[in-house]
Design goal:
By secondary structure, this protein is an alpha/beta fold. The strands form 6 sheets. Strands 13, 15, 16, 18, 19, 21, 22, 24, 26, 29 and 32 form an 11-stranded parallel beta sheet that branches. A 10-stranded parallel beta sheet has the order 12-14-17-20-23-25-27-30-33-35, covered by helices on one side. A 7-stranded mixed beta sheet has the order 5-4-1-6-10-7-11.
Length: 451
């Protein structure tokens, strides 16, 4: 069954106390809106329509960066959920498939749940997603008769017996697009809030003799994010689920509660992740790697058998081949490190390529930026870069070449050559003692004057 997504993302989110639209606040390195889009993508939708309002330009940018085919409908006034969905009608004019309404501030709807809703749609005209609430609070209530959903009652409009119902409305609704917009056209705002409720379509559909049902999901999937506190709860919930999934997939987390994943982290089995590791977006780790403690990775790829850290940073564009070693206080950015190469201590390698089995000594820096442009450093196979070498790019070091410790390399080094670029050492006998005496005398006079 073909499906179009309608994702409501127009709210300001005043409880966030932020200039940023609510749906652009992030969980696991991605905006809440992107989480909702990823959830809906499990149905392979034909169309995706984002209903934007507050901060529409920024919302549009975020949505289309994730999905370049996403369309944007504008809701200039906030008149309720039915009014918001109605703004998508012109973009779906003539569309005969199903429409699924999701919410940009509800990031955790699972693909299996949406598949369950799609299955139920084969038997019913309207399908609503509900959940058994631990504390029903001010949620809308789902009035069921067997499998039939009779109507949804908003809390403000519910009587005492209706408020006793614990089966609550998540807001997620699926229906044929033409039917959805037809029912919305009949909705009025004669209610306690003076808004156009999307939930009214169920009662209107029942009056037409159409069928409606509700599919249940775990309450955790329906978590909405309306404040900074709820954002923190959502982040914690994501991390808990991600850690459990990693462990179940054969990944060792020696201190799971200290590891933080991004929304798109991919890790192969038999990888070991030590404590206090943070994954930013865009990280792929192949099987059998080891990420040691206190390392930070983003936008990078780590191959089988590689060891990273402790205290390493891999930035976007870092590509580590098999059996590489990136050690403590090493930063790699936009650089390819070939198989067996080692950068073990206190070094920065940026905009570079290291050949197989090359060894980079402590304190090495690729000087890649001239204040305006970035430049490339090329290092060949089986090379040895002596400690505290400055490689001033653009520069090339050949296969089996070597640089002497403390060198500043500004010209290419041929295969097999040794490059030494440092001043001659001069020895002045007794001069150290004389200098110490002079300095101690100056310090004594200064201290006496200060007293």
């Amino acid at each position: 069954m073909s499906t179009a997504l309608i994702i409501l993302a127009a709210g300001q989110g005043t409880r966030m106390k932020s200039d940023l639209p609510k749906v652009l606040h992030q969980v696991a390195g991605a905006p809440l809106l992107v989480h909702a889009m990823k959830a809906g993508a499990a149905l392979a939708p034909d169309r995706t329509v984002i209903v934007a309002g507050h901060g529409a330009e920024a919302v549009t940018k975020a949505a289309q960066e994730h999905d370049g085919d996403a369309q944007i409908a504008l809701q200039s006034e906030q008149k309720g959920t039915a009014h918001a969905v109605a703004q998508a009608a012109p973009l779906l004019d003539g569309y005969e498939g199903d429409a699924l309404v999701l919410y940009g501030d509800t990031p955790f709807i699972q693909p299996e749940t949406l598949a369950h809703m799609a299955k139920a749609r084969e038997q019913h005209d309207i399908v609503v997603l509900g959940f058994e609430a631990t504390d029903p609070g001010r949620y809308g209530r789902l009035k069921m008769t067997g499998e039939t959903l009779e109507k949804i009652v908003e809390f403000k409009d519910a009587n005492e017996s209706e408020r006793a119902i614990t089966f609550c409305n998540s807001g997620v609704i699926a229906a044929p697009a033409p039917l959805l917009f037809s029912l919305i056209s009949e909705i009025d705002n004669n209610n306690a809030s003076g808004e156009y409720y999307l939930t009214d379509i169920v009662a209107l559909a029942r009056k037409r003799g159409l069928s409606a049902t509700a599919v249940a999901c775990d309450e955790s999937e329906t978590m909405g994010v309306n404040s900074r506190a709820e954002l923190a709860v959502a982040e914690a919930a994501f991390q808990t689920r991600a850690r459990a999934t990693a462990l179940a997939d054969g990944i060792t987390l020696t201190a799971p509660e200290t590891v933080h994943f991004a929304h798109d982290t991919v890790i192969g089995r038999d990888t070991v992740i030590e404590p206090n590791v943070v994954f930013g977006p865009g990280v792929t780790i192949e099987s059998g790697a080891r990420i040691r403690a206190f390392s930070h990775l983003e936008g990078c790829h780590v191959s089988r058998g590689a060891v990273v850290g402790p205290y390493a940073r891999l930035r976007p564009g870092a590509e580590l081949a098999e059996d590489t070693r990136i050690g403590n206080f090493v930063e790699i950015k936009n650089a390819v490190i070939d198989a067996g190469a080692k950068v073990n201590h206190l070094s920065y390698i940026g905009d570079a390529h290291l050949g197989e089995a090359t060894n980079v000594g402590a304190g090495t820096i690729t000087c890649n930026y001239d204040g305006v442009m970035k430049h490339h450093t090329e290092i060949g196979r089986n090379a040895f870069i002596g400690s505290n070498t400055m490689l001033v790019a653009p520069v090339s070091i050949g296969d089996e070449a070597m640089t002497a410790s403390g060198s500043v390399i500004t010209r290419d080094v041929p295969d097999g050559a040794l490059a030494i670029a440092r001043g001659d050492q001069t020895i002045k006998p007794g001069m150290a003692r004389k200098l110490f005496d002079i300095l101690k005398s100056k310090k004594a006079k200064r201290d006496k004057g200060a007293g």
